[in-house]
Structure formats: structure tokens, C-alpha cells
Design goal:
10-stranded antiparallel β-sheet; alpha+beta; 5-stranded mixed β-sheet; 3 domains; Immunoglobulin-like
Length: 361
Amino acid sequence: MNFLQLRIDSTIEKKGRKKMKTLEKKVEFNLRVALLIVLPFFIFSCLALSLVFAENNLEAHVTIVPTTKVDCKPDTLIAGSSVEWINCFIEMSNADVHNINVNTVKLGITTKVCSVFADPSTFSVADFNHDGKLEAFVRFNRLVADTNCFNPLSSTTTFTLVISGLVSGIPFSGTDSLLYTKTCQDVFVQQMQANTTSTESGKIITLASQSVDLNKYSAKSSSLNGFFTCRNTTSNIPRLIGDMKFFSTGTLTEPVHITWIPGLDFVYYKKTPVRIAAVLTTFDNCVATSNPVNVECVGKGAVYVDKDQPFSRETINLDTMRVTINGNTATVKGGHVFNDIIDVENLQVSKVTIKPAIPKI
């Protein structure tokens, strides 16, 4: 009986092991089948993705914000003056200023949310400050800036201007300061007298004249003389008066052709005495400080070019003219926009006297 029972148990155990092996084989078969089915799809997907990336040439781009330097003129505005434009020069070290979109350029200040868009009709690129780098010139309407940003002006205030926009679709931003005074008597000093001796200092870089070719002009002497003061009028409103003139004397060397006989010309060079004067006729903003000497006068003016033998005069009106003195060096700039008609650099000033104005009526 016991032997029979053991035999039966042994038979059952063998059948169970057989069934287990059969089941394991089925599972192993099913796994192989699944792997054979899934693996091709996985390989195909990887190949497809690699083809997509290769076709679209996907790359990572890093946007570099342009390094921007801004210089706005005038440095000082007087409330109620007739200055029409705030002129700004934008210089970039890692972007091409030619690619600035002038329609996106705007002026703001740091003390409140405001904006003034640049004049879209005025945009030019040149080396305006003669430092070997190009600057973009833009300008903003002063009356709009007064309404949107500067007013109400309770006292003399220094504003931080923020000039921003897009260059090649990338945002840029730069700052500069502007002193805004309520009257011409709000500045530290109100009277300036400048004199220069007639020396060879002062280089005329630009002269847009029809009668004198600057390449043929040789300057012998240059000088800057003038003054300005702030005085009360009969209506007790302070106003600027003054007189400021730049002079340059020299000679113009021009070829003269004389025909003795047909086909035979004789050429000699004639030297004609020339006098060039740039005169500030309207004083809009004038400020002067001492220790160190710093003078800025902005207004309208005219250039006079006189030639002798025989005498002739060419008159060129300046929509804007700016005279600055830093230490003992002066500059004179003027034109329809900024310095497109006359530009004088490194003019040595021998004497500058700055003192408070005496109140007069």
C-alpha cells in the first residue's frame, strides 16, 4: 500500500515538472516573439528621430544683449527754452548700429513710467565724436518729453534718461543724465566770458561750404570769444543774453588755368585770404560751472565765409549750434541736425572767467 502510494506521488510529481517546463518554454517563446515585434519599431523610431533632427539642423542659440553707450545733448535743459529736440547718440560694442530699428527707439526716465518715441524721419550713422567708432543719431521731441516725462517740474532736477529699442530684433538699452533747471538762474553760475589768442589750435573737421573746399584751406589762426549772462526782464522772467563767435583765418589755395595757345595750358596756384566765422545768434540753454571749467551753450546760429580778391560772403544758417568748453579746450558744432555744417575740435581757450550774474532789470 505504501509502495503504491509512493509510486502515484512520483508520477504526479513528474507530470507537474513536465507541465512547468512546458509553461516556461511557452513564456520564453512569447518573450522572444514580443521582443522581435517591438525591437524593429524601436530601431525605426530612433532612425526617424535622427533624420528629423538632421533635416531641421536644430541648434542652440545664445542671445547676447548689446553693450550700449548713450550720449544725449544738450546736457542741460532750461524750462521754457526754445530747444526743440533732445539729440542722442547710440554706440554699441557688439552690435551694428546700422541695424537699429528707429521705429522701436524710445526715451524714458527712471523715476516714472513714460515714453517718447524717436523722430522716425531722422536717423543717421557716423563717427560723430571722432573716437573711431560709429554712432547712431536719433532725436526726441522736447515738448512731448516735457508732457510725458519731465513735467511737473517743482525744482531743478537731474533725470536719468533711458534710451531703448531693438537692434537686429534684439532689445538694447542705455542711460545718460540730463540736468533740468526751472530758470537760467537755477544753475551754479550764470555768467561766462571766454577769450582765446589767435593761435593755430582748433581743427575744422567739417565745413559744408560751397565757396571753400576744406581740403584746400590752410588755417593760420583760430579764436573763440564771447559771453553770456542770465538777466531778469521787465516781466521778471529770467532770460539769457550773450554773444559767442568762433573765428578762423587762413588762405585758400586754388589752381588757375591760363590758355596761351589752343592745347597749351599754364597752371598756377592762387592763394586767397579767407575768414570763417560761426556765430551763436540765439541762446537757448547756457550753463557754466567752475572747478573744473565746464561750459555749454546751445541755440541757433550762422556761419559766414568771407573771401577776398574780390570780396564775397557766403552765409549758412544753422538750425542748431552748440559751443562747449571743458577746462581749456573748446568745441564748436552746428548744422541742420547737429554737426553736419561745421565741426571744430581741440580749440584752445586761453582765459575763461565764470562768476555769478549781477541781477539787472
